[in-house]
Amino acid sequence: MNSMNTNYSIRDEIRDFWSERAETFDQSVGHEIFSEGERKGWQRLIRKHLGAGQGRAALDLACGTAVISHLMHDVGFKVTGLDWSDAMLAQARAKAKKRGTDIRFVSGDAENTMEPRDSYDVITNRHLVWTLVDPASAFKEWFAVLKPGGKVLIVDGNMGRETWVKGLQKLWTKITGKPAASHMSPEMMARHQKIRSRVHFSHEMPAEAIVELLRKAGFVDIVIDRKLGDIHWAQARKMPFLRGLERMVQERFAICARKPG
Hints:
Elements: H1 10-21, H2 36-50, E1 57-61, H3 67-74, E2 78-83, H4 86-99, E3 104-107, E4 120-126, H5 135-145, E5 146-157, H6 164-176, H7 186-196, H8 207-216, E6 220-225, H9 229-236, H10 241-249, E7 252-258
Parallel strand pairs: 1-2, 1-4, 2-3, 4-5
Antiparallel strand pairs: 5-7, 6-7
Helix pairs in contact: 1-7, 2-9, 5-8, 6-10, 9-10
Protein name: Methyltransferase type 11
Domain Methyltransferase type: 59-154
Pfam families: Methyltransf_11 (PF08241)
């Protein structure tokens, strides 16, 4: 990380952070899928809001190692995965080759995709919005890339919101001197928090705040879906107790919106 370079921006820092996590990204519950129950939960969510793929064009933004890209492919979409971390894309391409899928991968910025206007039927992303420096501009970009009548499906959460489980974790650390179980090292966690402090949603990110920005970008028929219990329960069962409990009480949601036309 070249933080001494005055041209090194928050966007560069985000890219480099996720690049360093690429090699072990799929080892974490909540990133890769570790049960058929979770897989079915994701497929249910996708079909509920986007319908069957039927060969329609889908753009999976910040695709990482292509977990959501493969879920979209499995339900019949023709998928392009976009990420600006070359390390993540290398993992994604290797996974697609191993699984024999024809997903197209491109390097690009989710806030300025450089993809053709009016070219995609759907856009998906998971845990991307909290990292956006300028979500208002990003949503306008997504609006432009979608075909008239196209939909965006955002899966994210209000991770900055304090829960009673977080309080319990802090108490546990204070009593035992042991930090709560995490898939990140203390050094990576510190970098994660530094990044979070500088993005648009640096504290809480309620679904309603995302909805307002989507509406200003021109989207209509916006729906907040908080019924993700099947996914979260499947994930929690694979996690250490306190992390699993936190997963079940966090304010996580999916938001679906449509471009008029």
